[in-house]
Design a protein that fits this description.
There is one protein chain. By secondary structure, the protein is mostly helical. It folds into two domains: 238 residues, no CATH class; 90 residues. It is built from twelve helices and no strands. The protein starts with 5 loop residues before the first helix and ends with a helix.
Amino acid sequence: MCHYNVRLTAITLTIILLAVVSGCAKFTKQESENLTPFAQQTIDLIGTVDYSLNDEQLIYLRRIDDYIDIQDPYARYLALENQVRNMLAALVTYSLQIVAISEQDLSENKKANKLADVILALIELIRKDEVFVNENRDDDRTSETIKQVRQSQDYLEALRLLLPLVNEFSAHAGRVLDELHREKRKMALLVDEAIDKKYGAALKFHEEIRAVKDDTFHTLISLSRYSVTRDPDYIDKMRSHSMFSVLVATENKKSLSTQELQQLHKDITAELQLLNKNYEQLLPDVEAYFEHHRELTELLELKEEAIQEARLTFVVWSRAYQKMASGKTDPAEWFDITDGGKLFYDVARKAAGL
């Protein structure tokens, strides 16, 4: 299954960073209370969030992309999803490394330097697959911040010094999600137009057949009533539906014989059978048309929900980091999450100002 998971990506990044952070040992009880929950709660926060298109979704999109006059129409959307996924992975990896560094039997300054190394490695990894570039990025400011972190003699102070980078990281994540939302709308329009292009003619013809069938039924009703009443008004009503066989059979006539009535009934019934056959042959395409639109709506709703979850995740995490780095020791004050790891949406939205 072509399904990328944030946790798996985070683990991969962590393995890459093992060369940067090594030699772990037991850390003090106080540090364990203050830092270990931060990494665990970060994992809990995003553990249920997934931003990749799975096999079924990709198959659905590939079924229709032959009718889109753009080569690889989903490339930018998928690349932006990948960028969001990488940023979430970086978020988790950084949280894990905060604890990993704390566990090492090193001086506070050496821990701060390890932290700086992790930040630089993550910046490089994030920028490697960056689609939507951060125009607010200030490399000089980043270099100055890293320099201050390396000079720090206090690990908690080093975490605080990195707050501007953490805040800008989260702010840019929001901008990337805005761009992903815009790209989602473009993709939706392309797919919607492709569905109409693929099935539009069949749907239009199907609707036309249905209208003709309705006229045929009304013609048969008028024919039946004429056979009972012999009222010439019903001949006019039959002709008003413009069926060719009726127009020929009733031309310049105010009455019809029993034999003519029987033949006309036979002709109309034969036409109705042909209409029904064509109607049934087109039905699979008509059903596919509505099914494709339903699937597109469901897919867009899922993606919109994922975007909103990601937006809240970055806001909640950055604020939790700020609380943790400021020295708050109670993990319950850091994250607005349940024991099961899911967002308290009302609390998170309030934190996000939504």
